[in-house]
Amino acid sequence: MSTSFDENFDKELIQMWQENTFPSSGSPSDLSRQLSGMVKKFDHRIRWRNIIEYSAGVVVLIRSMFEIAFGERLLFAPLTGIAAVLFVMTYMWKQHRTTQPLDPGANASTYRTALLQRLDRQIRLLRSVRYWYVLPCWIFFVSVVTSDVLQGRRFVPSMMGFLSATALCVVVIRLNERVGLRKLEAERQRVLAIDTDSNEES
């Protein structure tokens, strides 16, 4: 499965913000259009990120089915993989299923609130990524190496694969909880600084 917030996504997110500047004065409709565009871009990127995650999950599910069919590993290993993938995919779906499209005629304040809500949700996901994303995957890796050992496969290659997978889990946690989270929190502060009230009153 792919990283929840990979470096490419972070770069696109930063570019999205850099492309949008918010004048202290101007027509309310201009600010509304800018904020509306930012919400749409954010939703677009999250939607594609989720598609990549779901696609990776489907690949793992198919691979696990083949392992069950051909008996490549003891049954508990592919079943653990299936359970881990279904848990992660279901969790992601539940977190994003409540996202509603905004009224095209909404004002700047409504778009700003919607953008903050989306950022807050992604921040919550990144803060807990080690639990809902990494932990299920790591448990799957444990089941794989356990199956290999019980089946009498070479210990050193199996353990090296497990240690490599564990190191990847640590990298995913650090990228999300440090790099990705820091960027999203900084962008949230920038959105908070946008004064929609005075713009709408002008």
**How much helicity do the residues have?**
over 70%
Rg, nearest Å: 21 Å
The number of helical runs is 7
The whole-number mean of residue pLDDT values reads 85
Helix- and strand-based class? mainly alpha
User: How much β-strand is present in the residues?
Assistant: under 5%
Residue windows where pLDDT falls under 50 for at least 5 positions: 1-6, 21-26
> Can you summarize the main beta sheet?
none
Distance, first to last CA: 49 Å
Give the strand tally. 0
The tally of structural domains comes to 1
From N to C, what is the helix and strand string? HHHHHHH
Give the tags.
202 residues; mainly alpha; 7 helices; 0% strand; elongated; disordered N terminus
Which SSEs are present, and which pair or pack?
Blueprint: H1 7-18, H2 28-70, H3 76-96, H4 108-127, H5 129-150, H6 155-192, H7 196-201
Can you give me a brief rundown of this structure?
It is built from seven helices and no strands. The protein is mainly α and 202 residues long. It has one domain.
